[in-house]
# Entry
Amino acid sequence: MQPTSLYDTCSIDTPIGKMIATADEKAILSLDFKEEILETISDNPLLLRLEEELYEYFEGKRETFTLPLSPKGTLFQQGVWETLCTIPYGETVSYAAEAKLFGNPKAVRAVANANGRNPIAILIPCHRVIATGGGIGGYSGGIEKKEFLLGLEKKA
# Structure
């Protein structure tokens, strides 16, 4: 008997590169940029909807996502990621402001590290967090992708 996968995977073409997404029957588990990935397709309804919502987002027709998310991480990381989801489309906050929103203003570095471990790019909008002085800050997908996403949202 063949073991069955607990989740489905698909690759998604976006204006800023290929992404790979995983989902189970209940939620999106990850969405990440990958330089080299095999073309994969899935009939998982959540992944099909994710591809559609991402297309609408990049077309400037969607500001919020409706998909259930289930990122895997520590309780601290999950709390930080929930905080990220409160940052409105088209707006940015500093890492210090995010730590304050999170409820722990002294945890700026730990909050920034949790942002860097965000497993669901774009939908959990860590690209909306910038440096305190107004600089772009970091982005695990690459600074050019962060600049693109911020520019896309500013056009709205």
User: Anything to note?
Assistant: The mean pLDDT is 91. The first strand starts at residue 8 and ends at 14. The CA atoms of residues 25 and 45 lie 8 Å apart. Residues 45-58 form the longest helix (14 residues).
